[in-house]
Amino acid sequence: MYDNLALEVQHVSIDYRDLTHMSLAKSLRKGEVRRANVVRAVNNISFSVNQGEILGIVGRNGSGKTTLLRSVAGIFQPDEGVIDTHGNRVSLMAIGIGFNANNTGRENILKSGMLLGCKMSYIKEHMDEIIEFSELGDFIDRPVRTYSSGMYSKLSFAVTAILDTDIMLVDEVLSVGDEKFRKKSFKKMEQLMQSDRTVLIVSHATNTLEQFCNRVLWINDGQFMMIGETDTVLAAYNESMQL
């Protein structure tokens, strides 16, 4: 069904370093050193995604789904293992990431597009389309810090969906916003699915994954559990949630 690999994740592990709490008085004492507790958020995960494939990622809260997605996006490097995007341009659609809060929506569109590797002329060519899709109106020229979470997600979706990238990473954004925008987002996603775009979707909404995904990856507490056909993996995941 697919001819080329778009993404390979090989034995990837990602650690968080959580600094222990220390009072101000104690921290000022000579020789007192804050210790860091190392938490392994993702542990030895491997999988591959073919060009044009839609892969869902499920797991309980705190399973490492978002951490894994952000590592694929290049926001931070894994502590172990390799992530190979095969030269593909990657965009991350997520709430609370990627925009400068002090810049306007319009300025953030330009910066986001350049970070995605798009030419300035291409971004400007699609500027009006992005603004219209986002439904932000005059807010597009106001600082992003004044946006609600719904407005932020609308702009994030519009930028990522309209500016052309090879691999699109979606982190729960489809479930945010008013009913009208959600319907429009789903329709846009359906159009993208018919293109050659490779997509990874993190979502707790199994009906969304059933609708869009060719396969699903299930991780739990940072551990690989299962990958395979959407119905099979979701059935196993839902059964585990009942335990």
Low-confidence stretches: none
Under CATH, the homologous superfamily reads: P-loop containing nucleotide triphosphate hydrolases
Helix content: 25-40%
Individual helix count: 9
Report how far the terminal alpha carbons are from each other. 36 Å
GO molecular function: ABC-type transporter activity; ATP binding; ATP hydrolysis activity
InterPro entries: AAA+_ATPase (IPR003593), ABC_transporter-like_ATP-bd (IPR003439), ABC_transpr_TagH-like (IPR015860), Bact_Polysacc_Export_ATP-bd (IPR050683), P-loop_NTPase (IPR027417)
Protein name: ABC transporter ATP-binding protein
Family: Belongs to the ABC transporter superfamily.
Summarize this structure briefly.
With about 240 residues, the protein is an alpha/beta fold. The protein is about 35% helix and about 30% strand.
List keywords for this structure.
alpha/beta, Rossmann fold, three-stranded antiparallel sheet, 9 helices, 35% helix, globular, nucleotide-binding, ABC-type transporter activity, ABC transporter ATP-binding protein, transport
Describe it.
This protein is of the alpha/beta class and 243 residues long. The chain has a single domain, classed as Rossmann fold. The protein has helices at residues 24-28, 65-72, 105-115, 120-125, 127-134, 149-162, 179-193, 206-212, 230-241, and strands at residues 5-19, 36-50, 54-58, 80-84, 90-94, 167-171, 198-202, 215-220, 223-229. Strands 5-6-7-3-8-9 form a six-stranded mixed sheet, sandwiched between helices. A hairpin with a 2-residue loop joins strand 8 (215-220) and strand 9 (223-229). Helix 5 packs antiparallel against helix 6 (149-162). The protein is globular, with a radius of gyration of 19 Å. It starts with a strand and ends with a helix. The model has no long low-confidence stretch (mean pLDDT 87). This is ABC transporter ATP-binding protein. Residues 19-243 form the ABC transporter domain. InterPro entries: AAA+_ATPase, ABC_transporter-like_ATP-bd, ABC_transpr_TagH-like, Bact_Polysacc_Export_ATP-bd, P-loop_NTPase. It comes from Parablautia intestinalis. GO terms for molecular function: ABC-type transporter activity; ATP binding; ATP hydrolysis activity.
